[in-house]
Amino acid sequence: MHDIYELPGFRLDSGAVLDPARLAYRTYGELNATRTNAVLFPTWFAGDHTSNEWLIGPGKALDPREHFVIVPNLFGNGLSSSPSNTPAPHDAAGFPAITIRDNVRAQHRLVTEHLGVERLKLVLGCSMGALQTYQWAVSHPDMVERALPFCGAPRTSPHNAVFIESLRAALTLDAAFEGGRYRTPPLAGIRAFARVYAGWGFSQPFYWEEEYRRLGFASREEFVRGFWEANFIGQDANNLLAMLGTWQDADVSATPGLDGDIERALGSITARVVALPAERDLYFPPEDEVRAARHIPHGEVRVIPGIWGHMAGSGANPEDAAFIDAAVRDLLSAPVPAAGPAAGRRAETPARL
Amino acid sequence: MHDIYELPGFRLDSGAVLDPARLAYRTYGELNATRTNAVLFPTWFAGDHTSNEWLIGPGKALDPREHFVIVPNLFGNGLSSSPSNTPAPHDAAGFPAITIRDNVRAQHRLVTEHLGVERLKLVLGCSMGALQTYQWAVSHPDMVERALPFCGAPRTSPHNAVFIESLRAALTLDAAFEGGRYRTPPLAGIRAFARVYAGWGFSQPFYWEEEYRRLGFASREEFVRGFWEANFIGQDANNLLAMLGTWQDADVSATPGLDGDIERALGSITARVVALPAERDLYFPPEDEVRAARHIPHGEVRVIPGIWGHMAGSGANPEDAAFIDAAVRDLLSAPVPAAGPAAGRRAETPARL
């Protein structure tokens, strides 16, 4: 159950135009009279708005009795504009490249023009949701009061890109893929893709300790099939590739006007930022966010301890979910940074889209 | 330039018989009159005896003026018996599964029956060479005085197996593979295999720091093609799969008589062991060897510092090569453990093949 916000003639960073672009979203709770309780929570790779619901609900950090939570779906995820649901010529392999900034620009219009929100009390997200969170903080310092990226980074590291390219190589190798013009789903390719992912999504000790038993799987092989393959087998291959492309190119310093200067990009963030990398994350390792936080005026890093690796951010492990929930509560109750050097920078750097 | 030792009617752990099995090897230096200077240095995945030569030579830790260095080639590597060089019915996809113990058993016959060596001053090896090193120490406590496994472990961890399975999934997905009965090499599969490997072989900061420039590559993509793809593109696909199988099943506790008891297996090692895991190794992480060393009576771990990850053991990085060279020198000059509890155990556990 979700709504669609249509953006007629939506021009992408690539120059291509989606007419319209369709942004699927769901809201939880109500905007208060002073319009000060809006929280934006973009989705992760191959997820949708329901993927975020473990952190939303009565008694949870994002309590809809208190907050107005907006969850926009990532372009390419099959609900928002995607290869699988866009008419020719932008269907399937004809779907244009989409950037994190394209996502944020569409979300900005949804939030401001459609939902009447001018300030965001918090932007948060996991993994590709974290990439969007950082981009929001850089593109709209005037709107974002707090940001909580988890299991992510302000830009996709070169190593992470190598991982992404290996996923792409596995998926597209399937003869059934036919350059993206497949008539039947390239299931063998998606299974190989899932097997590559399986090594990266959790940490080495997750497998040593057989933590997958906590997810109901009796063996490693059952876990790889029942969790990883099952998670991706129903996805459209071109959708997966579209999202991979968005992920691989993520970089807040590529925002127009910043000339690829990552320190300047991070230095322009005025929000209070609490980044939560996971201790054993293999493709968004904590050092990415530690390095970034040095340049964010009100930036802080709290490492999610444990062996779940990247999937610590999934909400599936109760201990990790509780850690994230507590951090969200803390940040929501923390004061917004006072005007200072960062605010001064903000004046120099108005909204960058 | 290498020699071949033939083992007629060589029975494998699987029950299959290679008649003969052919063990390719090269020796460096001469066995001294007292037969006390022999060093065994098995090879790694997809390498051959020349891959080990960076540590062998005048002035190096393995100086052939002083030591008699024996380098046996791993079964499946294309020089020893392999899918690519064995007659039907054991050719290509018909090649039988080979274990680390099969390799060690063949090497034991080469060393004792052919080369007249009864004691090994040192056994050492990197990665799959380390798997063989541990197996030697467990199977032949009466022969192995010192062992130096680097970038390896006494058994392949479950996470490592997930990585291996992803390599296999990528390689065999190529339609040209044809279940191993390919007529032309499945090059696209090998390239995908190489791309998966690229994310695992080095650490995350290796890519951040663009360390590949030290190997002569100007960009990440050039590195993935020029190093990873180039490294594997000339290999036979079935050979790669044969070695992957050997790697995946490695486990010293599966040695007959040990009933899968890893602590007992490690406790039976009488050699002085110095294990060198690499600090950022993503598939043989240091914790594997730290955990193992607790149970080895004369076991010690020295972590190779730095960001080269698994490839720290390749010899390609001068700092890592110097670290390993120094550790080998140290161990060669260290005394052999005195008879004690470990020797007592040795008496209880004679050679296990």
Automatic annotation (TrEMBL), chains A, B:
Residues 46-306 form the AB hydrolase-1 domain. GO terms for molecular function: hydrolase activity. It comes from the Bacteria. The keyword Oxidoreductase does not apply. Keywords: Hydrolase. Pfam families: Abhydrolase_1. InterPro entries: AB_hydrolase_1, AB_hydrolase_fold, HAT_MetX-like. PANTHER family: HOMOSERINE ACETYLTRANSFERASE FAMILY PROTEIN (AFU_ORTHOLOGUE AFUA_1G15350) (PTHR32268:SF15), HOMOSERINE O-ACETYLTRANSFERASE (PTHR32268). This is Alpha/beta fold hydrolase. It comes from Nonomuraea indica. The lineage of its organism: Bacteria, Bacillati, Actinomycetota, Actinomycetes, Streptosporangiales.
